Amino acid sequence: MADAHAHAAAHAAPPELRHHFVDLPAQREASSLGMWLFLVTEVLFFGGMFTAYVVYRSTYRRAFEGASNLLDIKLGAINTGVLIMSSLTMAMAVWAASVGKKKLIILFLLATIGLGSVFLGIKYVEYKQKFDHHEVPGPHFVVPHDENTHEPLPRQAEMFFSLYFCMTGLHALHMIIGVGLLTWLIVKARADAFSPRYYTPVDNVGLYWHFVDIVWIFLFPLLYLLGRHTL
Amino acid sequence: MSQNGSHSRAPKAYFLVFAALMFFTALTVWAAFQHLGVWNTPVALAIAVTKALLVALIFMHLKSSPRLTILVVAASVLWLAFLIVITVSDYVTRAWLPIYPR
Amino acid sequence: MPQLFPPEASSFAGHVDALYIFLILVTAFFSLLIGTLVVVFAIKFHRKSPDEVATEVHESGLLEIVWTVIPFGLVLVMFAWGASVYFRLSRPPANALDIYVTAKQWMWKLQHTDGHREMNELHVPVGVPVRLTMASEDVIHSFYVPAFRFKRDVVPGRFSTAWFEATKPGKYHLFCAEFCGTRHSNMIGWVYVMKPADYQAWLAGGVPGETLAAAGAKRFIEHQCNTCHGDQPGARGPSLNGLFGKQVQLANGRTVLADESYIRESIVNPQAVLTAGYQPIMPTFQGLISEEGLLQLVAYIKSLASAPPAGAAASAAPAPTPERKTIRP
Amino acid sequence: MSTPTATPSQRVDYLNASYGVKSWLLTTDHKRIAILYLIGITFFFAIGGLAAALIRLELLTPAGDVFQAEMYNRIFTTHGVMMVFFFMIPGIPGVLGNFLIPLMIGAKDVAFPRLNLLSWYLFAIGGLTALWAVVHGGVDTGWTFYTPYSTVYANGWVVVTAVGIFISGFSSILTGLNFLVTLHTMRAPGMTWMRLPLFCWGMYATGIIQILGTPVIAITLLLVAAERIFHLGVFDPAQGGDPVLFQHLFWFYSHPAVYIMILPAMAVISELVTAFSRKPIFGYKFIAASSVAIAVLSFLVWGHHMFVSGQSVYAGLVFSILSFMVAIPSAIKVFNWTATLYKGSVSYQTPLLYALGFIGLFTFGGLTGLMLATLGLDVHVHDTYFIVAHFHYIMVGGTIMAYLGGLHYWWPKISGKLYPEYWSRVSAWVIFIGFNLTFFPQFIVGYLGMPRRYHAYPEEFQVLNVMSTAGASILGIGYVIPLIYFVYSMRYGKDAADNPWGATGLEWQTPSPPPTENFPDTPVVTGRPYDYLTGREEEAVG
After folding, report:
1. Closest chain A residue to D102 measured between Cα atoms?
2. Could D312 and B93 be called an inter-chain contact, meaning their C-beta atoms sit closer than 8 Å?
3. Residue C73 lies in a domain
4. pTM to 2 decimal places
5. Which of C160, D36, D47, D94 has CA atoms 20 to 30 A from the CA of D410?
6. Which domains does chain D have, with CATH numbers?
7. Environment class of residue D474 by beta-carbon count within 10 Å: exposed (0-12), middle (13-18) or buried (19+)?
């Protein structure tokens, strides 16, 4: 980037341009790369639990299949649909920001928050069921019975529920953080902080939200659909 | 996201991807109830990977991102594979060496 | 000369020390090479005047290749030698003397098949391969005898198996090498390697309790294992006579060798190693049988190995344990 | 540099640009954050060092007579946790990386200055959380937190310490992220990848490891905390968990973590060797490629910590051969450093003494590492003092030597003052002698079979342990001396010129200490790096 260009941009420096960047495209490229690197850490963060899941599933296949069949597949499928829809509305919000339609940004952000809350609500219902059936790992865990053979599952079914709560719990926590970020975006959008020239925060929260959706795209089959063919 | 300020209509791709994702969700649920024997898990994983790719390429506009970003994403998948494959390889090969050379 | 090596008291120790000396030589050679080169260059090319400049040295790809290939070759030698020594350690010979070790927070309990029990002490005959089948009742411990150059972590939840063959009579240190809590440094003991005559005297001297297999038989009845595994025809569980050491066809298609780990797995996680042709009705006994109990059950089932295979002779009573063959001098 | 040389005292620089605690605690200037890190890691080094002194005191006598066993276990755990997570890992990246990367690439600051300040706060909060746990009784699980002891049987502040490490793990992630984005997007015009100083290559490789490795220990410690709080059984064998799986997940990060510790040290050494031989580095491409190769290969070798822990024999073979492969790039680097000295114009200032010490000790430490990668030998020496000696040769003989060398080399740029040359050479020799006397005997006592983490040991090991403790006291004195004269030099030291060593590199073409925005206007880089021989002083076109 020739010096002249830098000087020109410096004079008409838009307010969002941070002092140590040459111009807005450089700043956007840096923040986007930064966000993707953060998502890499999230991939490996969930990756640790997926490793534990893969290992224990192959060690305790029957216990995992039996316990997986106890999960409510209807709620799981609905949740997947809800989350995909929220990904759509999030993508629309990012598009709206890129074309500078302030009302649409706020509308789609609100839709995303709504769908996210629906997801968390359904999650709460599922957790409530588990607490009632004493399927929560810990001192008062009761080994559940297999759905079709009505035989008690192997004791290691508790391992499945430990992993289930760790993975979906951490995923739900990421959803809650996402909803918080979306609310912060709405506040900034109402304050006209975004324009087609500068909407990096919306773009980055969008990337984060889509990532959380991708995690659920893998969690759903691995946790819910694992043993259905044995029914 | 390229600066296409003039673009007034929302990109059609979003709606197509949305429909595809919903379809794949239904597909994977249906496939789970089929007795595919040893193929149940690979099919479920394949569907999940395609859904993830759709979200990443279109919604996260990875398709139009600089090569460096794609390299970063590929690295994360490769490192996840390192972690899972090498750890599982320990478990798989534990029984290979029977302690008794009967 | 202060002692630099622990006593070489096992068949394995000599190989490890030879490998160690080779590695010391390589380390000494390269350390001295780099050390002297660095000092010589620093002195020879000492800056004479404040603004003296170095002379141009062109990079040479050849040199880079040389000092990549040579280390590469050397490390392959180290790897191969190390792997061969390691393989020797991990393949116990068939006729080894069985010792069952139970590691518990801050003590070692050792049981001989003929009923002798020892605490933090192990008496073994010289020249006889000894196989240790080890289990931990709480955390990870590690059975370490420096004189034998032999160490094995004892991971709770599974059997750890290792072997050694003592070659020099004497009294050697036994340490716990994996941090296991407050009195980790007190979980130590002695291994007494004895000439065969002394060993026989020691065996005769001590008053053995019931043999391990007998204790196992009692536990077998106590947990009503015989209701399914009593090998009467049409029993719900597979017969255990002549099972140990044979290949077993599993329900999921795999065939595994019936060794200690298989027996432990079928007691603790029976669904995973379900025998072909049987219903998955066996409950898991995880947490219900202590590690010592599992070792005794394994010893009992091993003692059934030489009993006639199932159905031939329906003997409900546990078969008498065959007398161990006398220890060869 | 031909700018009007106003005496440093009047010139506005990043140190006297503003005063007051707020100006330091809310700064987003990478140079000030580097100073904050310097203070932070010196504080945690002192705590870790104190714990080390207590350990060596206890090991003077075979009987455990200075401390109860319980207390001794908590002391060595504190030594491990403080040194690894709050000194070694944030150390060179936090201090030298933060200060130098923007200067070396001609940028005004790192890519995300506010994130950089957040990284320091996360490091400080994490460190203080772990310190809180230590003060209230600490943990007795060792810095490795092996389960099921850490999850079921340990009764110390495991969860609080794990949370402290988890928080400081984020600091490491964000620092790595910051460096990677800075090196990718903020290089000055003309600063191509092949003109990047090797220090930046080393920090780039370190960034890769911080990003790809740290999350795995974050989730592992989270699972350990969840297991203790909610009684889950993820790693508890009584509920079907597998302790070896914990070791896999733990070492997947913790082995690359030792490369987070050594790669920045190697990066410093590349700079010191070429600056004090006043000669272009030998094999620039090979050293840069070696750094990245180490970063990648370091993720495939973690199993050599588990050869005797019940891991399968075949996995052991694979990990052993891969561990040998990761040693090759380190060997290439050592050979290239040595070749750089050949026909150089070598001057004996303190940074070079530390660099030469590093090359010697790192070579010896690295080669003993090869012994541990050898399957047959590791069975005997695993979890003995042989291992303790090996990693101290790499961490203390390597990383701390390089850190001190780098601190001396860039001290004029950081503080604008010169350190006293006489005292620094004395302390360098004291440290070198004390170090070898401390850790060489541990190789011998290790091979003799003395296990790690023992507070009482058989009598025949006493002589070697007494030598080690004697060495430790010398080493302790050796470390205190630089602390004294560095602080002294800030007040009474002679003012430093912009380029006291006559070295190349953009950081030497800005005043010492540099102004807040580093360069009056962005420099343009033309020549190749370390260009000592063509133009006498590479003029950076303003």
Report:
1. A20
2. yes
3. no
4. 0.92
5. D47
6. 29-320+328-509 (1.20.210.10)
7. middle
